[in-house]
Amino acid sequence: MDHIQLTQIHGGPGDNVGRDKIINTTIVNNIFGKSVEYSGLATYISNLKLYLNGTTDPVVRLKISGQLNEAEDQLKQFKDDIIRLAEIFTRIEVNTERLRIAKEHFESGRLREADAILKAEELAEDQLSLLTAKESKHKELQDIDEKLRNNANEYLVKARLRALRYDSNDRVVETCEYFEMALKSARQNEIIFEYAFFLQRHNYFNEAQLLYEELVTNYRQLAQTNPQDYELNFAHTLNNLSVLYLNKNDFEQAEVTNRESLEIRRRFARINPQNYDLDVATSLNNLGVLYLNKKDLERAEVTFKEALEIGKRVARIDSQTCDPEVALLLRNLGVLYANKNDPERAEAFFKEALEIYRRLVNVEPQIYESDVAKIQNNLGVLYSDINDCEQAEIAYKEALEIYKRLVCSNPQTYERDVAKIQNNLGTLHLAKNDFEQVEIAFKEVLEIYRRLAIINPQVYNPNVATILNNLGALYLKKNDIEWAEASFKEALEIYRRLVNANPQTYEPDVAKTQNNLGVLYSNKNDFERAEAAYKEALEIRKRFVSTDSQVYEPYVANTLNNLGTLYSDENDFEQAEASYKEALEIRKRFARTRPQTYEPHVADTLYNLGILYKNKDDFKLSKIAYRDAIEISRRLAKKMPQLFELKLAQLLFNYGLLVLIEDNLIDSAHYDIFVAKEIAIKYPTVPLAQQIVDSANQILESK
Fold first, then answer.
1. Do residues 157 and 102 touch, judged by C-beta distance below 8 A?
2. CA–CA separation, 585 vs 562, rounded Å?
3. Given 186, 208, 236, which residue is the final one in a domain?
4. 354-412, pLDDT tens digit by residue?
5. Which of 63, 71, 450, 680 sits at a 20 to 30 Å CA gap from 36?
6. Has residue 330 been placed in a domain?
7. Contact of 234 with 264, CB cutoff 8 Å
């Protein structure tokens, strides 16, 4: 029997975590309360929500939802920028009248007045005057440098104030201009960092990288002579640079900078764990996410575990602050163990994370309800992988219920999550041969992802390919070869494009799709193309075994089993037997530790060997293989009849037929065939079941 492969969508590990310093919240809240800009944004959001709730037009709702997301992001950025500017005022010396008045206006919520005080023309005149004086008056250099630093600080505040002008199309450009002017007056580390952070936040990664690297050089030198004052700033800069490298998929540099930052934070945490332990845990989580993206699962495991141990220790003192980060780490470990094919530990971590998120939902449902849905989806994929369809369906349905509720108020954010769950439910129903419902679900999901991919192809093209592959598997099961081939080929074309940019991530998907195309070509009796597809899939999978045998060896066995069937159909019994035996050795080895997951595959390969030996006229080995397969299938059918009863019926019928023809043991043979028929009768809509019933009737009636 050939094996096709579908993909269920887990949802990736948690995002990198960062925290800002805490400042005087009374001042900040006062600014929010009096700021015209804040009030305007809040009113705009309120009006958008009213408009969204008042329309049922899906196109209009999607458009308004996008505007609402953008406005809410702007409000969040506005708050962050206010806090950041308030921090700047606490750190710089307010030594000019303009800065003093600007600060007064700012703390009273009069942001535009603060901006207006720092007139660009006056600042430029002062700067020009000061720079000229610096060149000509060497004796007054120290005083001029101080004034330039003050001028730079004014430009810094001007830049941060201009960053708050979300109503201006030139906000980012003008903010950058003022940062540049600040650096022209005095290239202070504080200004370099603020400018780099602003650029990074707005995805100007290359420009931000240059500034961070300059800052790393500066702090490295300062920390050598005065570590107590500068090492923490050095570590913070390295941490930001590491995240930037990760955003650019420069994994090597990301790891180097993260590790250097982590070493400094560890040193400070040893002296003052209460203040710095959580920083260490955050850096470790970020490092774990890096390893997970690199598919370096062993190091990801070690890193996440250490972060979790620290997080739990800190949470015992301050659970309110730390519980969300602990839950995130637990979920990341669950995803890790799911990727390592260790369902027991994955389930334990997912359930512990779910318990925390359910507790948090009781306090803040708006924030944490989506996290409950994410964990339930993770659990659904996990249960599906171990053939526990009942638990998988329960988990998926809760996740879908949450996302459908959330999508009503925010379709742009949660539509993709609805699509993800519908895909996973579709793969579950496909295993149960519920073809009609599966096709409806997959087509809805494909429509959603194609629409999203038009706007953001880099993010959503992999999802389009995933659904196309799953649709191909559905059409193949329905024997709709033309549609199956078209779906698989489009998926393969997308994956090959993605491999050019990121082979480590997407080559396994090429192998999966080629494996499925091999099954299709085999069904079309196109031996040459089937063999080529299987061999490419096998070559990729064997290569990846060296990186993680626990993950990729089962896939190698899958393709070997399929190659065995192809060679058997071509009467190349020697190659078929070699392929089946290699596949069987791998599957038996994995079934010893995880029988629920791998015993069905062992039974499949034994069944295929039974057919092969029968075709070779080696009836003794054929009957042994059949009996072993029947023993396993009886055990599986008792636990999960809907999944495995038909397989048992097929085995019993073929074994009975073999006994009847070769041993002429009529009663024994007829009993097995009769049992096969009684099982198959339960599935009147499945073509295989009807074939078994019809063939059994012919044999039993001729008794």
1. yes
2. 15
3. 186
4. 999 999 999 888 788 999 999 999 999 999 888 788 899 999 999 999 998 888 877 76
5. 63
6. no
7. yes
For residue 3, the one-letter residue type is H
Among residues 143, 171, 186, which one ends one of the domains? Answer: 186
Give CA–CA dist 420/462, Å, rounded. 12
Number of H helices, E strands in the chain: 31, 0
**How far, in Å, are 90, 164, 247 from residue 80 at the CA level?**
15, 10, 21
Q: What share of the chain is helix, strand, coil (3-state, %, to 5)?
A: 85, 0, 15
CB 9 within 8 A of CB 381: yes
Residue type, 684: P
> Which amino acid is it at 633?
S
Domain count, the chain: 2
How far apart, in Å, are the Cα atoms of 420 and each of 32, 239, 301, 417?
38, 32, 26, 5
Provide the sign of the torsion angle of the four alpha carbons 585, 590, 595, 599, taken in this order.
Answer: negative
Name the token pair of 675. Answer: 């049992």
C-alpha distances (whole Å) from 314 to each of 15, 317, 321, 510, 558 are 20, 5, 9, 43, 45
Q: Where are the beta strands (DSSP E) in 94-214?
A: none
Q: Is residue 64 part of a domain?
A: yes
Judge whether 527 lies within some domain.
no
Q: Answer whether residue 438 shows pLDDT above 90.
A: no
| Structural domain span for residue 686 | 536-701
* Residue 696 structure tokens: 């059994």
Looking up residue 583, the CATH number of its domain turns out to be: 1.25.40.10
Residues with Cβ within 8 Å of 97's Cβ and at least 6 positions away in sequence, in order, are none
Identify whether the C-beta of residue 395 lies closer than 8 Å to the C-beta of residue 377: yes
d(CA 290, CA 242): 10
Burial code (b: 16+ CB inside 10 Å, e: under 16) for 502-537 equals eeeebbbbbbbbbbbbbbbbbeeeeeeebbebbebb
**pLDDT tens across 217-254, in order?**
999 999 999 998 899 999 999 999 998 888 776 788 99
Block residue for tokens 């240059």: 210
Please state, in angstroms and as integers, the Cα–Cα distance from residue 644 to each residue in 157, 167, 388, 394, following that order. Answer: 69, 62, 12, 20
Chain center to CA of 678? 45
Model pTM score: 0.58
Residue of 25 and 213 predicted with greater confidence:
213
For residue range 441-466, list pLDDT tens digits in order: 888 889 988 988 887 687 688 889 99
Task: Report if residue 499 sits inside a domain.
Answer: no
Calpha distance 112→629 (Å, rounded): 78
Whether the pLDDT of residue 12 is over 60: the answer is: no
Structure tokens at 19: 């925290």
Spatial distance between the Cα atoms of 44 and 257, rounded to a whole number of angstroms? 41
Which amino acid is present at 441? Answer: A
- Give the count of beta carbons closer than 10 Å to the beta carbon of residue 490: 17
